[in-house]
Amino acid sequence: MTFIANLAFKRSSWLVLALSTFCLEIAALFFQYQMDLAPCIMCIYQRTAILGIFIASIIGLSNPENIIVRIIAYLTWSISAIWGYFIAAEHIDMQTNTDPFAFTCDIIPNFPSFMPLHEWIPSFFAAPGDCGEIQWQFLNLSMPTWMQVIFAIYSIVFISVFIANLSKKRI
């Protein structure tokens, strides 16, 4: 438990988190631009959640000994991982539901008006794909299913680190 609790205080742990999310973002761009898989709106939201975990890791990396920095990083990490998990679950429902009227897939991302990421960086945040189409599978699991597994892992790691630190009476 001490090992897990100490992870939040080490820059190397936050760096591993940053590198893992960075690699996932690179993989997303590879799928989009090398394999010509058009991301849908749900893919973009999941990509944004991974970006949120990346931002959390950079925040934590900046000064892991500072409790305020850690709390901000924890909040950003947990919200992004859990939100990403639920977005991936909804995406899986869209792909597996046989009723064509059960879900609709927006064309334009619903980002806040003060931060229209799809207009600022359309090459990264535009969503020309169809949410219901399964374009890629690995080991018989679709992309959103793999993302749900990844978000579950990020959530479990966060919960483990957070609870370990709570049990040591430090956050």
The amount of helix comes to: 55-70%
CATH topology: Bromodomain-like
Q: Per DSSP, what share of the residues sits in E-state strands of 2 or more residues?
A: under 5%
- Proper CATH architecture: Up-down Bundle
What string gives the helices and strands in order?
A: HHHHHHEEH
Quantity of strands, as a count: 2
CATH homologous superfamily annotation: DsbB-like
* Major β-sheet annotation: 2 strands, antiparallel
What is the fold's blueprint, element by element?
Layout: H1 2-7, H2 11-33, H3 41-62, H4 67-96, H5 117-120, H6 122-125, E1 137-138, E2 141-142, H7 143-167
Antiparallel strand pairs: 1-2
Helix pairs in contact: 2-3, 3-4, 4-7
Task: Explain what this protein looks like in three dimensions.
With 171 residues, the chain is mainly α. The two termini are 14 Å apart. It is 67% helix and 2% strand. The protein has a single domain (2-167), classed as DsbB-like (Bromodomain-like, Up-down Bundle), CATH 1.20.1550. 29% of the residues are buried. The mean pLDDT is 86. Helix 3 runs antiparallel to helix 4 and helix 4 (67-96) packs antiparallel against helix 7. It has a two-stranded antiparallel ribbon with strand order 1-2. It has helices spanning 2-7, 11-33, 41-62, 67-96, 117-120, 122-125, 143-167, and strands at 137-138, 141-142.
